[in-house]
Hints:
Blueprint: E1 8-12, H1 22-39, E2 43-48, H2 68-79, E3 84-87, H3 98-103, E4 107-108, E5 112-116, E6 119-124, H4 134-143, H5 146-153, H6 157-170, H7 172-175, H8 189-200, E7 205-208, E8 214-220, E9 223-228, E10 236-240, E11 245-249
Helix pairs in contact: 1-2
Amino acid sequence: MNIPAGKKIYFASDNHLGAPTSEASRPREQKFVAWLDDVKQDAAAIFLLGDLFDFWFEYKTVVPKGFTRTLGKLAEITDSGIPVYYFVGNHDLWMHGYFEEELNIPVYHSPKEFTFNDKTFFIGHGDGLGPGDKGYKRMKKVFTNPFSRWFFRWLHPDLGVKLAQYMSVKNKLISGDEDAKFLGEDNEWLVQYSRKKLQEKHRDYFVFGHRHLPLEIKLNDTSTYFNLGDWIGYYTYGVFDGETFELKTY
């Protein structure tokens, strides 16, 4: 994909709308919607790298209440012809058709490679990648098991959503409380994962979320790892202008 002159590609992740409560997250949602309104002016594409919601589950005819401003703005953007791409995170991994059907937003459940202006990007949320994090990896296998999804679907939405919201806040493996601590460059799992992927094939940029930390780490002379931070404490995002990628604060 070649980016038209004057256009940019934007990246954001980890909004966790609805946490710790819908009311408390409303100002953050309003700020994010304002950002979407700003970047649509020169966006060639927008990438959302997961955990937009603190919890999301799609029943056959029901989705969680709330987030009207965000969903409406995303619909407005895609209706205008600007593509939006979504990578599920560990808090919204149970997406199954709603974004595609209602918002015309493709949803990815694993990292994917893109090329923009001859620059290669390896993009994903980042959960469960690299060494370590074994407790979460075991839990993710349970959550993504078809039986678990089937069982949860049979809970009444009022009960299921309330239970999931409680777990999302209280369970450290899910809540991400430990994800906001820098482990040191050599101990960052996503850095190690990116370096291993580089052995297979060159990529100019590795872009992830999940860590809740804005990070820029050189992997070698021609490849860089970026973590987008979050929209809870940092309000950081990534932007590629066709030549270079950088993190900015809104």
